[in-house]
Amino acid sequence: MVKVHLWSGLRTLTGGLECVEVEASTTGQLLAALSLSYPELEPVIESGVSIAIDGRIIATSLTEPVSAENEIFLMQRLKGG
């Protein structure tokens, strides 16, 4: 299981949880597991999120490995110009 810290704007979509745990070994599996466990997150994930793994931002890779030892944050992408 990996622990995923949620950006403040995403917490309302998980019943106010600041941190959730899902079974995943890649960023793609992590996003799929979050969508299954928290269906309210799915539209946000589909429109674009970034994942920070140990302080490194992953914006597009779905094959980046994740493990229980990583510090993982899920962030909604900011839009605008």
What is the name of the CATH class? Alpha Beta
Major β-sheet, in short?
A: 5 strands, mixed
Q: Which second-level CATH architecture applies?
A: Roll
Rg computed from alpha carbons, rounded to a whole number of angstroms: 11 Å
User: Pairing-aware structural class of the strands and helices?
Assistant: alpha+beta
Q: How many separate domains?
A: 1
Order of the strands making up the biggest sheet: 2-1-5-3-4
Q: Supply the CATH superfamily name.
A: Beta-grasp domain
Distance between the termini: 37 Å
Instruction: Indicate the low-confidence ranges by residue numbers.
Output: none
Question: What is the typical, i.e. mean, pLDDT?
Answer: 94
Q: Percentage of helical residues?
A: 10-25%
Question: Can you give a write-up of this model?
Answer:
With 81 residues, this protein is of the alpha+beta class. The protein has one domain (2-76): Beta-grasp domain (Ubiquitin-like (UB roll), Roll). Helix content is 21%, strand content 27%. The chain is built from two helices and five strands, in the order ββααβββ. A five-stranded mixed β-sheet has the order 2-1-5-3-4. The mean pLDDT is 94. This is MoaD/ThiS family protein. InterPro entries: Beta-grasp_dom_sf, Mopterin_synth/thiamin_S_b, ThiS/MoaD-like. It comes from Parasedimentitalea huanghaiensis.
